[in-house]
Amino acid sequence: MKNIRTILITVFAVIFASGCNAQNNNEVKTHGRASQQEVKQQNTNKMSKSIVIFFSHAGDNYSVGNIEVGNTKIVADYISEIAGADQFEIVTHKYDGMAYMPLIELAKEEANNGELPPYEGEAPDLSQYDTVFIGGPVWWGTYPQVMFTLFKDINLDGKTVIPFTTHEGSGLASCESDVRSAFPKAKVQKGWSIYGHEVRGGRAKVEKWLKGLGY
Questions:
Q1: Which residues of 7-36 are buried (b: 16+ CB within 10 A; e: fewer)?
Q2: pTM for this structure?
Q3: Is CATH 3.40.190.150 correct for 48-212?
Q4: Could you state, in order of their start, the residue ranges of all structural domains in the chain?
Q5: Closest Cα to residue 103, out of 72, 143, 68, 62?
Q6: pLDDT grade, residue 48 (50/70/90)?
Protein backbone atom coordinates (compact mmCIF):
# COMPACT_ATOMS: atom_id res chain seq x y z
CA MET A 1 0.00 0.00 0.00
CA LYS A 2 2.81 2.32 0.85
CA ASN A 3 4.42 1.75 -2.55
CA ILE A 4 1.10 2.36 -4.34
CA ARG A 5 0.60 5.58 -2.41
CA THR A 6 4.10 6.70 -3.31
CA ILE A 7 3.54 5.90 -6.99
CA LEU A 8 0.23 7.83 -7.04
CA ILE A 9 1.81 10.88 -5.40
CA THR A 10 4.61 10.80 -7.97
CA VAL A 11 2.16 10.53 -10.88
CA PHE A 12 0.08 13.45 -9.60
CA ALA A 13 3.22 15.54 -9.12
CA VAL A 14 4.31 14.89 -12.71
CA ILE A 15 0.85 15.79 -14.09
CA PHE A 16 0.74 18.97 -12.00
CA ALA A 17 4.22 20.02 -13.13
CA SER A 18 3.35 19.41 -16.78
CA GLY A 19 0.23 21.54 -16.47
CA CYS A 20 2.19 24.41 -14.95
CA ASN A 21 4.82 24.25 -17.69
CA ALA A 22 2.14 24.30 -20.38
CA GLN A 23 0.50 27.30 -18.75
CA ASN A 24 3.82 29.11 -18.51
CA ASN A 25 4.57 28.37 -22.18
CA ASN A 26 1.18 29.72 -23.22
CA GLU A 27 1.77 32.87 -21.17
CA VAL A 28 5.15 33.38 -22.86
CA LYS A 29 3.64 32.88 -26.32
CA THR A 30 0.72 35.21 -25.55
CA HIS A 31 3.07 37.85 -24.19
CA GLY A 32 5.19 37.52 -27.32
CA ARG A 33 2.21 38.17 -29.58
CA ALA A 34 1.16 41.19 -27.51
CA SER A 35 4.66 42.64 -27.75
CA GLN A 36 4.69 42.29 -31.53
CA GLN A 37 1.33 44.07 -31.77
CA GLU A 38 2.60 46.91 -29.61
CA VAL A 39 5.69 47.34 -31.81
CA LYS A 40 3.51 47.39 -34.92
CA GLN A 41 1.26 50.00 -33.35
CA GLN A 42 4.23 52.13 -32.35
CA ASN A 43 5.62 51.94 -35.90
CA THR A 44 2.22 52.95 -37.25
CA ASN A 45 2.11 55.92 -34.89
CA LYS A 46 5.54 57.01 -36.09
CA MET A 47 4.56 56.92 -39.76
CA SER A 48 4.33 60.25 -41.55
CA LYS A 49 0.81 61.71 -41.63
CA SER A 50 -0.08 63.39 -44.91
CA ILE A 51 -2.70 65.71 -46.37
CA VAL A 52 -3.59 66.78 -49.90
CA ILE A 53 -4.29 70.48 -50.34
CA PHE A 54 -5.76 71.19 -53.75
CA PHE A 55 -7.90 73.34 -55.97
CA SER A 56 -9.94 71.71 -58.71
CA HIS A 57 -12.22 73.26 -61.30
CA ALA A 58 -15.34 71.43 -62.43
CA GLY A 59 -17.53 72.67 -65.26
CA ASP A 60 -16.14 73.63 -68.68
CA ASN A 61 -12.55 72.37 -69.04
CA TYR A 62 -10.19 72.24 -72.00
CA SER A 63 -10.01 68.86 -73.74
CA VAL A 64 -12.46 67.06 -71.43
CA GLY A 65 -15.50 69.33 -71.87
CA ASN A 66 -18.06 69.98 -69.14
CA ILE A 67 -17.20 67.79 -66.14
CA GLU A 68 -18.89 67.33 -62.77
CA VAL A 69 -15.65 66.45 -60.95
CA GLY A 70 -12.49 68.44 -61.65
CA ASN A 71 -9.34 66.73 -62.90
CA THR A 72 -7.25 67.65 -59.86
CA LYS A 73 -9.97 66.40 -57.49
CA ILE A 74 -9.71 62.96 -59.10
CA VAL A 75 -5.94 62.88 -58.59
CA ALA A 76 -6.37 64.07 -54.99
CA ASP A 77 -8.81 61.22 -54.40
CA TYR A 78 -6.30 58.72 -55.80
CA ILE A 79 -3.62 60.06 -53.44
CA SER A 80 -5.96 59.79 -50.46
CA GLU A 81 -6.94 56.23 -51.36
CA ILE A 82 -3.38 55.04 -51.99
CA ALA A 83 -1.40 57.01 -49.41
CA GLY A 84 -4.11 57.34 -46.75
CA ALA A 85 -3.85 61.13 -46.91
CA ASP A 86 -6.46 63.55 -45.59
CA GLN A 87 -7.78 66.31 -47.85
CA PHE A 88 -8.38 70.03 -47.83
CA GLU A 89 -10.04 71.38 -50.96
CA ILE A 90 -9.63 75.08 -51.70
CA VAL A 91 -13.10 76.24 -52.69
CA THR A 92 -14.20 79.45 -54.37
CA HIS A 93 -17.43 80.13 -56.23
CA LYS A 94 -15.93 82.92 -58.31
CA TYR A 95 -15.57 80.72 -61.39
CA ASP A 96 -18.83 78.80 -61.11
CA GLY A 97 -20.70 78.39 -64.38
CA MET A 98 -18.06 80.13 -66.51
CA ALA A 99 -17.32 78.92 -70.03
CA TYR A 100 -13.72 77.99 -70.76
CA MET A 101 -12.65 81.09 -72.75
CA PRO A 102 -14.01 83.71 -70.31
CA LEU A 103 -12.46 81.71 -67.47
CA ILE A 104 -8.95 81.71 -68.91
CA GLU A 105 -9.21 85.43 -69.65
CA LEU A 106 -10.20 86.07 -66.03
CA ALA A 107 -7.38 83.79 -64.82
CA LYS A 108 -4.91 85.75 -66.97
CA GLU A 109 -6.11 89.03 -65.53
CA GLU A 110 -5.80 87.72 -61.97
CA ALA A 111 -2.28 86.44 -62.59
CA ASN A 112 -1.12 89.66 -64.23
CA ASN A 113 -2.52 91.76 -61.39
CA GLY A 114 -1.39 89.44 -58.62
CA GLU A 115 -4.95 89.18 -57.33
CA LEU A 116 -5.71 86.94 -54.36
CA PRO A 117 -9.36 85.82 -54.60
CA PRO A 118 -10.91 84.70 -51.30
CA TYR A 119 -11.63 81.05 -50.58
CA GLU A 120 -14.46 79.53 -48.58
CA GLY A 121 -14.04 78.72 -44.89
CA GLU A 122 -10.83 78.79 -42.86
CA ALA A 123 -7.31 77.58 -43.51
CA PRO A 124 -6.64 74.05 -42.23
CA ASP A 125 -4.65 73.28 -39.07
CA LEU A 126 -1.56 71.52 -40.44
CA SER A 127 0.30 71.02 -37.17
CA GLN A 128 -0.38 67.28 -37.16
CA TYR A 129 0.94 66.66 -40.68
CA ASP A 130 4.47 65.82 -41.79
CA THR A 131 3.82 65.66 -45.54
CA VAL A 132 1.70 68.05 -47.59
CA PHE A 133 0.76 67.35 -51.22
CA ILE A 134 -0.18 70.55 -53.07
CA GLY A 135 -2.06 70.24 -56.35
CA GLY A 136 -4.01 72.22 -58.89
CA PRO A 137 -4.46 72.92 -62.58
CA VAL A 138 -2.00 75.13 -64.44
CA TRP A 139 -3.53 78.50 -65.29
CA TRP A 140 -1.23 80.90 -67.12
CA GLY A 141 1.98 79.20 -66.10
CA THR A 142 1.26 78.56 -62.43
CA TYR A 143 -1.42 77.53 -59.97
CA PRO A 144 -4.74 79.44 -59.88
CA GLN A 145 -4.40 82.63 -57.85
CA VAL A 146 -6.85 81.47 -55.18
CA MET A 147 -4.25 78.87 -54.15
CA PHE A 148 -1.78 81.65 -53.39
CA THR A 149 -4.40 83.22 -51.14
CA LEU A 150 -4.33 80.08 -49.02
CA PHE A 151 -0.52 79.91 -49.18
CA LYS A 152 -0.37 83.17 -47.25
CA ASP A 153 -2.52 81.66 -44.49
CA ILE A 154 -0.61 78.44 -43.80
CA ASN A 155 2.80 77.60 -42.36
CA LEU A 156 4.73 74.69 -43.90
CA ASP A 157 8.10 75.28 -42.19
CA GLY A 158 9.97 71.99 -41.86
CA LYS A 159 7.31 69.96 -43.61
CA THR A 160 7.81 67.77 -46.68
CA VAL A 161 5.88 69.41 -49.52
CA ILE A 162 5.11 67.62 -52.79
CA PRO A 163 3.65 69.73 -55.63
CA PHE A 164 1.61 68.20 -58.45
CA THR A 165 -0.41 69.55 -61.36
CA THR A 166 -3.02 68.58 -63.90
CA HIS A 167 -2.52 70.23 -67.28
CA GLU A 168 -2.96 69.98 -71.03
CA GLY A 169 0.61 70.67 -72.11
CA SER A 170 2.13 72.93 -69.47
CA GLY A 171 3.56 70.19 -67.26
CA LEU A 172 4.59 71.69 -63.94
CA ALA A 173 5.12 75.14 -65.48
CA SER A 174 6.42 77.33 -62.60
CA CYS A 175 4.28 75.65 -59.93
CA GLU A 176 7.17 73.87 -58.21
CA SER A 177 9.38 76.97 -58.09
CA ASP A 178 6.44 79.10 -56.94
CA VAL A 179 5.80 76.66 -54.06
CA ARG A 180 9.49 76.89 -53.12
CA SER A 181 9.21 80.68 -53.09
CA ALA A 182 6.02 80.61 -51.02
CA PHE A 183 7.48 78.18 -48.47
CA PRO A 184 11.26 78.73 -48.30
CA LYS A 185 11.60 76.79 -45.03
CA ALA A 186 9.71 73.73 -46.27
CA LYS A 187 11.35 70.65 -47.76
CA VAL A 188 9.85 70.97 -51.24
CA GLN A 189 10.27 67.80 -53.29
CA LYS A 190 10.37 67.33 -57.05
CA GLY A 191 6.94 67.97 -58.52
CA TRP A 192 4.79 65.65 -60.64
CA SER A 193 2.27 66.33 -63.40
CA ILE A 194 -0.37 64.47 -65.38
CA TYR A 195 -2.54 65.41 -68.35
CA GLY A 196 -6.07 66.32 -67.33
CA HIS A 197 -7.60 64.15 -70.02
CA GLU A 198 -5.69 61.14 -68.63
CA VAL A 199 -6.74 61.29 -64.98
CA ARG A 200 -9.96 59.30 -65.27
CA GLY A 201 -7.97 56.28 -66.35
CA GLY A 202 -4.74 57.33 -64.68
CA ARG A 203 -4.83 55.66 -61.27
CA ALA A 204 -1.92 53.37 -62.23
CA LYS A 205 0.24 56.40 -63.07
CA VAL A 206 -0.53 57.95 -59.69
CA GLU A 207 0.26 54.64 -57.98
CA LYS A 208 3.62 54.44 -59.78
CA TRP A 209 4.48 58.00 -58.77
CA LEU A 210 3.53 57.42 -55.12
CA LYS A 211 5.42 54.14 -55.04
CA GLY A 212 8.53 56.07 -56.04
CA LEU A 213 7.91 58.30 -53.02
CA GLY A 214 7.71 55.34 -50.71
CA TYR A 215 3.91 54.92 -50.45
A1: eeeeeeeeeeeeeeeeeeeeeeeeeeeeee
A2: 0.78
A3: no
A4: 1-47, 48-212
A5: 62
A6: low
